[in-house]
């Protein structure tokens, strides 16, 4: 098997602590180049890939390396994602991009078509699906362990947003770079995970966004969402205003329930009798999750090599972009449920 050659764009904490360790473990792909405008970040690259070539700009990297690369791994702040994805696809490169893929649905225009035209994969880092405890939940749901899913509850509690390397202020609290607050950051993860457990697409979204603690930033630090499906519902609560870090997930169905508290998983029948329990790594441990990245790479390389169906991940990202956008609009309207089939990108911006 040919070893695919890739370049990292953006050497922040996520790239250094999450992506680079994952690429180092692969024998079927490697990192041969990187670009970042901060020269002090070069050490993070050479510590893992000493022979990789360094560039101070993306433009320079593309100009020199494009014929030597098979893919790029984009780890820059979200506002740059759409432009970088478009450029890389135009050069005929496969693209792995950190979430969110885009910060507004209209930024998606042309990207799926370009990916198909160039026959190149466009994959977003949906790494929470590969957390051991959530992967086990997915396995149990697909095996019918809880029957037909009727209700999902998701809670993410944090004290503050994750720190960004060399950024002052943190780009996550600048809406021009991040695209939003906790909804965009943690909500994207919750949405692509929750929607894989419930059959059929969501029909409506209702949300309320607020700032409970961090009033110094022009973003929301708390989000409360309700997704209505044909025969089920999903409740998602996210906050950066808690006193501790924790995650809790509940999946209830016609034949039983699953509960995740950190890394502890319990499966019960409809009479609440315990059928299975397991202690797995906690969802609240760390922010970069290098171990979860292995599954992301496998998914990406499968699409890049054509070993698996191409476009499923892109469909997940497209749904997330529209749900986030609709949630914002719902909050502006006081929490009004909005139909998902409404074309989010066509609305007039306020």
Q: How far is it from the N-terminal to the C-terminal residue, by CA?
A: 51 Å
Task: Name the CATH architecture of the largest domain.
Answer: 2-Layer Sandwich
Order of strands in the sheet with the most strands? 14-13-12-11-7-10-9-8-15
Order of helices and strands: EHEHEHEHEHEHEHHEEEEEEEHHE
Number of domains: 2
Instruction: State Rg.
Output: 20 Å
Shape: globular
Measured as a percent range, the helix fraction is 25-40%
Low-confidence stretches: 343-350
Main beta sheet: 9 strands, mixed
Strand content: 15-25%
Number of helices: 10
CATH topology term of the largest domain: Dihydrodipicolinate Reductase, domain 2
Class by SSE composition:
alpha/beta
CATH class placement of the largest domain: Alpha Beta
Mean pLDDT: 94
**Fourth-tier CATH superfamily name of the largest domain:** Dihydrodipicolinate Reductase, domain 2
Q: In total, how many beta strands?
A: 15
Write the layout of secondary structure elements.
Blueprint: E1 4-9, H1 13-24, E2 29-35, H2 42-46, E3 53-55, H3 58-65, E4 71-74, H4 81-90, E5 94-97, H5 111-118, E6 122-124, H6 132-142, E7 149-157, H7 175-178, H8 182-194, E8 204-210, E9 222-228, E10 233-239, E11 246-253, E12 256-261, E13 264-269, E14 274-279, H9 293-305, H10 312-332, E15 338-339
């Amino acid at each position: 098997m040919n070893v695919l050659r890739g370049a990292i764009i953006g050497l922040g904490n996520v790239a250094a602590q999450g992506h680079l360790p994952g690429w180092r473990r692969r024998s079927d792909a490697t990192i041969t180049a990187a670009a970042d405008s901060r020269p002090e970040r070069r050490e993070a690259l050479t510590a893992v890939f000493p022979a990789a070539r360094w560039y101070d700009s993306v433009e320079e990297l593309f100009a020199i390396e494009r014929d030597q690369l098979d893919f790029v791994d984009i780890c820059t702040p979200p506002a740059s994602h759409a432009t970088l994805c478009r450029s890389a696809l135009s050069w005929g490169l496969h693209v792995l991009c950190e979430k969110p893929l885009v910060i507004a649905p209209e930024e998606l225009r042309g990207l799926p078509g370009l990916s198909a035209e160039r026959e190149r994969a466009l994959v977003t880092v949906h790494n929470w699906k590969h957390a051991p405890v959530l992967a086990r939940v997915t396995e149990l749901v697909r095996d019918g362990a809880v029957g037909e899913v009727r209700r999902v509850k998701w809670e993410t509690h944090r004290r503050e947003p994750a720190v960004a390397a060399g950024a002052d202020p943190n780009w996550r609290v600048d809406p021009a770079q991040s695209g939003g607050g906790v909804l965009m950051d943690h909500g994207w993860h919750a949405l692509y995970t929750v929607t894989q457990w419930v059959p059929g697409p969501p029909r409506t979204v209702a949300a309320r966004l607020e700032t409970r603690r961090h009033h110094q930033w022009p973003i929301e630090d708390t989000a409360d969402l309700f997704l209505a499906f044909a025969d089920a519902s999903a409740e998602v609560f996210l906050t950066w205003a808690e006193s501790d870090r924790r995650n809790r997930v509940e999946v209830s169905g016609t034949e039983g329930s699953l509960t995740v508290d950190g890394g502890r998983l319990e499966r019960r029948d409809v009479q609440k009798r315990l059928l299975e329990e397991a202690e797995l790594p906690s969802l609240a441990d760390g922010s970069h999750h290098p171990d979860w990245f292995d599954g992301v790479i496998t998914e990406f390389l499968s699409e890049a090599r054509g070993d698996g169906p191409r476009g499923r991940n892109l469909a997940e990202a497209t749904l997330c972009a529209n749900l986030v956008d609709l949630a914002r609009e719902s909050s502006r309207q006081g929490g009004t449920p909005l139909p998902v089939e409404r074309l989010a990108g066509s609305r007039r911006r306020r």
